[in-house]
Write a sequence for this structure.
């Protein structure tokens, strides 16, 4: 069968009750859990997979403000700020004041630099496994996830819910949401 032409799961075998978000979180949790066990087996207990994109950005960019890390890895400032706080509590990064009082510059520690060969090995093995997973799928996850992110950046999922055909058929739904925001 050609690449990306594998049939998807039998629709009749899918759970009737469930939500897309729940399934997406489950898949991410499964993948992250497996990556975390690989990292622990490599001798990095307590290291979380979500730290690697931040570390890779800092290796590439050097010490930079949190906003620059967020931009480099394509997530929100808030998400990076929370991740960096967890990393700092584990001694993986330090924070110094930036150009103004609101800005914090993230630096890798010697502890993290010593872990880089293990982190890089896991990253390379994970990238290889992800490419092989992509080859099994009817469409590549490596293309689908960025496409979803871009679509949601153009128009939020909240707005898509409000604009949905179901919501148009139930105007009281939008009215009740607007009343809660007022």
């Amino acid at each position: 069968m050609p690449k990306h032409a594998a049939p998807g799961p039998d629709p009749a075998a899918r759970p009737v009750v469930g939500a897309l978000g729940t399934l997406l979180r489950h898949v991410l949790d499964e993948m992250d859990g497996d990556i975390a066990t690989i990292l622990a087996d490599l001798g990095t207990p307590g290291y979380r997979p979500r730290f690697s994109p931040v570390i890779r950005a800092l290796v590439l960019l050097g010490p930079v403000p949190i906003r620059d890390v967020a931009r480099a890895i394509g997530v929100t400032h808030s998400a990076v700020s929370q991740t960096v706080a967890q990393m700092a509590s584990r001694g993986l990064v330090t924070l110094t004041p930036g150009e103004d009082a609101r800005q914090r510059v993230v630096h890798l520690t010697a502890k993290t630099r010593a872990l880089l060969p293990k982190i890089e090995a896991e990253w390379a093995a994970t990238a290889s496994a992800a490419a092989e997973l992509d080859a099994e799928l009817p469409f590549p996850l490596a293309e689908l996830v960025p496409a979803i992110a871009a679509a949601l950046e153009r128009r939020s999922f909240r707005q898509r819910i409000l604009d949905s055909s179901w919501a148009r058929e139930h105007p009281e739904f939008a009215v009740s949401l607007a009343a809660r925001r007022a």
Remarks:
- Residues 110-136 form the longest helix (27 residues).
- Residues 1-6 have pLDDT under 50 and may be disordered.
- Residues 20 and 47 are 28 Å apart (CA to CA).
